[in-house]
User: Fold these one by one.
Assistant:
Number 1:
Amino acid sequence: MTLRNLVLVCGDQLDHHSIALDGFDPERDAILMTEAAHEATYVWQSKRRIAFFFAAMRHFRDAMRRQGRTVLYNAIDDADPPNSLGAGLKAAVAAHDPERVVMVEPGDWRVRHALLTAAGETGVPLDMLEDRHFYASIADFEEFSDGRKRFVMEDFYRMMRKRTGLLMDGDGKPVGGAWNFDKDNRKAFGKDGPGLIAPRAHYQPGPITVDVLRLVEKRFKDAPGTLESFGEPVTREDALHALEDFVANRLCEFGTFQDAMWEGSSTLNHSRISAVINLKLIGPREAVDAAVAAYESGAAPLNAVEGFVRQIIGWREWIRGLYWTRMPDYADLNALDAQADMPAFFWTGETDMACLRDMITRLLRTGYAHHIERLMGMGLYLLMHGARPYATHDWHMGLYLDAIDWVSLPNMLGMSQHADGGVVGTKPYCATGAYIDRMSNYCAGCRFNPKQATGEDACPFTTLYWDFLARHEDRFAANRRMVLQVRNLQRKDADEVAAIRARAETLRVG
Ligand SMILES: Cc1cc2nc3c(=O)[nH]c(=O)nc-3n(C[C@H](O)[C@H](O)[C@H](O)COP(=O)(O)OP(=O)(O)OC[C@H]3O[C@@H](n4cnc5c(N)ncnc54)[C@H](O)[C@@H]3O)c2cc1C
Ligand code: SF4
């Protein structure tokens, strides 16, 4: 078949309303999708993540076919499938001789480069279209950034609120008289815990997903994690249902307990839509509009809805803008010169630390952790351990269902590891075990003591915190927002600091 347009769709581009499908002519166009072994193995990935992507891709393929569209689909279990996205593209061009290849811009600088190179080798033009899934284009982000002295997410967020009119009153002021309600959104659950929160829906795997689960179990048997109780939404219908379920059952308390942690559960009041929104099964406008409608009907309070809207039109868009305006150099940043290997227990959860044991084993089981578990649990430990920033991003890409390069890299390397020296956040997020003690119930059941920095019972977070400050004392003393923390370090006597640093070294060796 000779084609007009070959529409290339990657695994994180399962957008039913994609701009690349505009004007699709079933007589002359075809979609190309490839389950590439390279994409499943270029970082060591969990079985769950691989299965999630392939299952969602196969359902998207079938949905497109039901709409009368031809889909050229390279399944990983075909005889002799292409190993990479570029190889899949070249084979399809050779077989179908399209006039042009068209796709939405990819979510990964590496993939963009590989596809442009592959297309270049075929001689067929490849048009990468601006992704209308997002609220802001990269040009919008550049316009916002240009010549700006103060470059912080909050200003970007306010600009986005004004631009979209979301949660604004008629006079250009924020609804409720404040731009954000963060001060109301940092509560812990208290000793009785979160109480009854409606559990997240389980999406029973149908025949397509069951086939994928079998395939992944066999082919990727040495990959980390488990496929047990796989119940992820992998279709647009289920993804929309997951959003509705959140808005109806958990949004109300999303704000208040946004930062709280509790042993045995990550979902708590969070939406858990990041994976389906990043695969584009649903759009950010659908999520934001549903939350705003809940506020307007009186079904959800402003602190919850504003908090949720900020995550999506603020943080998510800001992170994407940073990625595309700073890559590829951003990936090499290592402002704190962190050179340690990843601790091995990050792949197994086998540690005496009650908090990390619970978070990592759950992550291996579900492919999910909420924001504070990522930032003030696992990410915090890696920062203070001094792991190489790009290695922490690789680990994150391997285990989380929602990790796509554009969003994982600035969050992990920038926000969590401070490797960009203060672009995503103006100071490193560092704390002792006392923070985890305050925001969760972990420490009561742990063999370590969050108040101790030395000795057999010392909490590793607390030891590593003081060691981290001591290692970077000069740098942090020059940061206005870190001065108090550095002063507290300077109050300690030299013997205590030496003992802390010696213990930190033993922790680092493992
Ligand atoms: C170290 C670290 C790594 C992260 N890596 C990723 C990642 O690879 N992919 C990812 O989607 N998010 C990432 N985040 C952001 C955030 O933690 C997740 O989006 C969120 O936990 C997903 O769970 P949820 O859907 O229940 O989110 P909710 O808490 O319910 O928030 C709603 C939505 O807001 C968006 N959002 C919130 N914060 C961010 C943010 N900082 N960046 C981008 N979107 C945001 C997400 O789409 C999320 O679904 C990371 C955060 C940290 C601290
Ligand atoms: S004492 Fe330290 S290691 Fe143990 S749960 Fe608390 S913060 Fe985690």
Number 2:
Amino acid sequence: MIVRDCPICAVPLAEETYEGFPVGRCPQCQGTLLDLSRYESIKKIPEKTLTELETEARNGFQGDNPEPIRCPRCRLAMEKRPLAVPGFDNLHVDLCRNCSLVWLDGGELAMAQLAHQATPAFRDKQEMKRRAAARDADPERKAAFDKAVAKLPDKSSPVREGLNEAFRDALLRIFIRPFPWWLP
Ligand SMILES: [Zn+2]
Ligand SMILES: [Zn+2]
């Protein structure tokens, strides 16, 4: 990505790699400029842990900029698109249709990732496998999980072949911290 200026602070964006993709990051407001397609990918396949995302969201979020901004590349007005994050109203992503670039204010990229992780679509089998691997790497959590599974009334529950929705949700509540973190 060629160096652009922050659409809010007008200082040059730093070229960074985020989740394996090049992005522009404002050193002042922590806002992020990136390709729309990469934004979609980053939301869906986070490599960062929930803790990392939470820390980033907490540290970076300074409020959503409600003012219209211009695309740092073509200078056309960017379009405000709602960003749905539980517990927050009126968050936006700014989109340039001309360049397919999106702008997210500080912390909002991590928040978009966290919000995506809260959707049922995210809790698919692949994701469960990834989390199961992380869980199994921690002996204490693995033991707790095995104990919980052993207590299931039906001993033949096909845990290894995939869990049904209700069971999965129950386990998620036990083994993954509540979401969103900013609500009591
Ligand atoms: Zn800025
Ligand atoms: Zn543009």
Number 3:
Amino acid sequence: MEKVHVIGAGLAGSEAAYQLVKRGIGVVMHEMRPLKMTPAHQTGHFAELVCSNSFRSNSEENAVGLLKKEMEYLDSLIIKQAYLNQVPAGSALAVDRLAFSSGVEVCLRNHPLIEIRTEEVVSIPNEPTIIATGPLTSPDFLQAIASFCGNEFFHFYDAVAPIVLASSIDFSKAYWKSRYDKGEAAYINCPLTEEEFHAFYDFLIHAQQNLPHDFEYQVFEGCMAVEEMAKRGEKTLLFGPMKPVGLEHPETKVRPYAVVQLRQDDFSKSMFNVVGFQTQLKWPEQKKLLQMVPGLTNCEIVRYGVMHQNTYLDSPHILYSTYQTKKRADLFFAGQITGVEGYIESAASGMMAGINMAKLLTSEPLVTFSKQTGLGTLAHYISSPNTNFVPMNVNFGLFEELSGRIRKQDRKKLYKERSLNELERMKERL
Ligand SMILES: Cc1cc2nc3c(=O)[nH]c(=O)nc-3n(C[C@H](O)[C@H](O)[C@H](O)COP(=O)(O)OP(=O)(O)OC[C@H]3O[C@@H](n4cnc5c(N)ncnc54)[C@H](O)[C@@H]3O)c2cc1C
């Protein structure tokens, strides 16, 4: 049987390759790093997390938690490695980023059906191919994709948050706690008084930004730079990343006016990332800003926040809900480039593209789930006509409505039951 070219060993490409080889299909993986780096990746590892180390909520009654459950049920490599390399993060699933990506890489490198080529791909192979080169696809390859698709690409901007050294945090001011004491005390909290918050806010909205070349402000709402969020008003921060509710000081029981939270970034607890503080401020301004926060006055930043262009296809014109291209049956796309947004969503689309490529090569009907599942919801979103097609995280608003009169408190439980029932029914076919 023909081997499949999987281009890009990110979240989507790694998952797609795993789904193929576990079905007995050989894979040639092409990854350009570390030979050629993207503007955001920092290592040569597969499945590198470019910004946050969190895979978001772990509750199955939350859409992204449910999507994880579905993927776990279908034996996802990304989810398996996430749980193996988990670090404390309250009700979220967060990982030691290096251990996680090494885990994914080792699994694929050691697989006898996978051949790995460290190279930049610049043209689309004529053999069966899954393109999973992500939002930072190299410019030459983007050109090849553009001439294949014959369509315009869309862009928006995504920012990353700074990471600070744990040993530089002042624990006479900062304290450990998870919001509402859910789970263990997993976050470091730096409390601000009203006066401190106002000074911080004032600095933030006037600080100098590092705007990318040809910058046109179109950002993804879910990953908006903290300074842009702040310009919408003080309350946006106080109800957003600096929300103090449920974060009362463990000893004094006093609720601060605002809080900056930091989440563990590695197993050894040596690095912490500043939650929700993705930013495009100039580096000296980032330092001054963070050092205004009690507990961070001497903080050492090991990775500064930066902003990057994020590219995606006009998928409703190009793809079916199986992630197969309309123009060429043995060519699929997967990952953020298809217009799904987020680590888990990218891996989920890689899973479906991998499963469907395997179906195609074994002459079985391709699989699509219904909008009663997170996997199906995303696939329908990227392939349905949409004049305002923007990248989308999984959310219950995209799911098929529940029928009948349902009590509000039962809704999320029913979403979960419905989705897992469908997977159970489909198990044989998968
Ligand atoms: C700056 C930034 C910050 C983000 N922050 C977050 C976040 O905090 N949380 C979140 O959930 N999502 C975030 N995202 C969105 C998205 O979830 C990630 O980008 C995710 O990594 C997408 O997965 P992917 O597999 O599609 O792409 P990637 O993980 O980027 O993988 C694509 C791979 O293809 C390789 N590649 C590119 N071109 C070529 C080529 N021509 N030949 C060979 N290899 C190539 C790249 O080196 C890369 O390894 C962020 C995106 C950006 C750009």
